[in-house]
Design goal:
alpha/beta; 5-stranded parallel β-sheet; elongated; Rossmann fold
Length: 334
């Protein structure tokens, strides 16, 4: 075969290959394929994100709004109503109950017509991710009150493993490229086709990362956990940043310390929860520890879903009542 013919064939193959790649990329884009989108179960789709490690895909279920939160569409226009943003993890998002039985919606009904409560809870989120979403989106809604739910059994570890922030001498520091997603190389690729190939060849890695992000296993600080002091310091300065935002933007901040099923029904002693209480006191942040309030209930098991141990409708109703009375009495907007 002559040199000229070889070059022609090579050129033809290059053109055909480029055309196939271009058509494949166009097809994936037209189909709306997102290589950083994955199934989290129950119809929930998550999207890997370097800003907060992951978000819930907007509109992935009928009860997920355009911002990726489990609520009605959010409006920037407040009107005459006072606005509460409720942030936290799966206890706030409430996937185990119908949307109208979630804690934020029950609180909204308890507070009455002059109030609206936005459900900004996301399954698996730590307070650091809630802080990112508050600064990136929540403040635009001009909240009067921000309620931060802390599930202390795992939130210390969430802040630590997410790698969104670091402690630089007591100062909360966000350095570009430090999140779990960016460090793992799972940020959104430029090409959808490259992302598809990455997912095909890195299924095990993706599964590990997804499991790490969404896993909410216990992290009991006084039981030989590594980097105990660093986790406590990270929680302290994250709470401090929430508090400084409240002063700067003129909203009231309330932390709700959520006890686990194991604490209330299984009679496990409090460990992390007491640490959060101390940190809030040191930072002059109002905090409601639900533990002693739950212990007063006759049927403690009814407060939790018997299958997944999140708050049941009964538990959400009790917490909503506690919060509404507190807001009416103590946390009126400034």
């Amino acid at each position: 075969m002559g040199v000229k013919k070889t070059l022609l064939i090579t050129g033809y193959l290059v053109i055909v290959t480029c055309a196939i790649l271009a058509v494949s990329e166009l097809f994936l884009r037209l189909r709306g394929y997102d290589p950083n989108e994955f199934d989290a179960g129950d119809g929930i789709r998550i999207i890997f994100d370097g800003e907060c490690d992951y978000r819930v895909k907007p509109g992935c279920r009928p009860d997920i709004n355009e911002s990726g939160f489990r609520d009605r569409p959010f409006s920037l226009n407040k009107g005459d109503k006072k606005r509460v943003l409720m942030m936290g993890d799966s206890f706030v998002m409430g996937l185990n109950v119908p949307s109208e039985q979630t804690l934020p919606k029950m609180l909204e009904r308890k507070l009455g017509e002059g109030w609206e409560v936005f459900n900004m809870g996301i399954l698996g989120y730590g307070p650091d991710q809630s802080l990112v979403r508050l600064m990136g989106e929540g403040l635009a809604f001009a909240p009067d009150i921000v309620i931060l739910g802390i599930y202390a059994r795992n939130d210390f570890n969430d802040i630590y493993k997410n790698r969104l922030y670091d402690d630089r001498g007591g100062i909360l520091t966000r350095t570009p490229g430090t999140s779990l997603i960016t460090e793992s190389g799972m940020e959104r690729p430029r090409s959808r086709l490259c992302g598809l190939l990455r997912n095909l060849f890195q299924r095990k890695k993706i599964g590990i990362i997804s499991g790490t992000l969404l896993c909410d296993g216990p992290d009991l600080l006084l039981e030989g956990v590594s980097d105990r002091e660093k986790k406590i310091n990270l929680m302290r300065i994250v709470l401090r940043r929430f508090s400084s935002l409240a002063r700067e933007r003129g909203f009231s901040l309330v932390v709700v310390i959520i006890p686990g099923y194991e604490n209330i029904v299984g009679n496990q002693p409090l460990v992390n929860e007491d640490v959060v209480t101390t940190l809030c006191a040191e930072e002059s942040i109002p905090a409601i520890n639900l533990y002693p309030l739950f212990l007063k209930e006759n049927n403690k098991a009814a407060l939790y879903d018997k299958n997944d141990h999140h708050f049941s409708r009964v538990g959400n109703a009790l917490v909503a009542d506690i919060l509404s009375r507190y807001i009416t009495r103590e946390a009126q907007p400034r």
